[in-house]
Amino acid sequence: xxxxxxxxxxxxxxxxxxxxxxxxxxxxxxxxxxxxxxxxxxxxxxxxxxxxxxxxxxxxxxxxxxxxxxxxxxxxxxxxxxxxxxxxxxxxxxxxxxxxxxxxxxxxxxxxxxxxxxxxxxxxxxxxxxxxxxxxxxxxxxxxxxxxxxxxxxxxxxxxxxxxxxxxxxxxxxxxxxxxxxxxxxxxxxxxxxxxxxxxxxxxxxxxxxxxxxxxxxxxxxxxxxxxxxxxxxxxxxxxxxxxxxxxxxxxxxxxxxxxxxxxxxxxxxxxxxxxxxxxxxxxxxxxxxxxxxxxxxxxxxxxxxxxxxxxxxxxxxxxxxxxxxxxxxxxxxxxxxxxxxx
Length: 343
Hints:
The chain is mainly alpha-helical.
């Protein structure tokens, strides 16, 4: 099949974007790209909404949308850090109560373990504290490297958010047709590829919200219906449900964190409850893969098996970040090929 100039340019831009995606995944900068895409997309959507609601001030809607998102993001960061700070301060103000609660949790965990395991565990809280201190001293440099990596990733994430806001502010969709005559064919093709990437990202973002809601509903059923039916009541159930939705908006990693939290809380009740909970959560997690592939696949007319294979393939090559970005990457490639009339 002979390709025209537009198709050749489109394929070149697709290959260029794909090359950069692979490089960014390899050097672990993909979280910044995802954060940038999120803020860019939200800026465009909010700008479109405000320009319709503020007809007299439509020329300022772009600035207002950026300011609103910036305020919201800063508020989330400040609120998160303040909550953690307040939590640590509260623990420091009531050390006896904190130690009592920790001791109660430790005792519940130890009592839930079989005797063959508890034989190897410390006998009391003081021994546990000394064991933890010895571990921290032996692994001090490793822990420092973890802290540095967390701050490094946080800085990268913030840089991606800032870039997304800047690009969202500069891109004025209402004047794009006016400027198209002044653009070269390559520039038009690059912008078309970027627009396809944004569209695909919207599909994936919507699917992630649906998955977070699904996960929240299934977790609510477990914590408030199934377990209470057997006389089991987990502590912090309402907080766990809230955490399930909020962290569920973060692909893969958010699920792993909230599943670990629920497992630990269930473990304080008994080992049997913890094992039942983790099996239930793993089944939900696997169902989410199919649900994600189904939602995104419907939008780009791709089969579930195609997206699942892409997710497994990129996870094998690039780890968790490959698994997170796989639906976006594959959907972007397939949508580009379809719009270029190559497939």
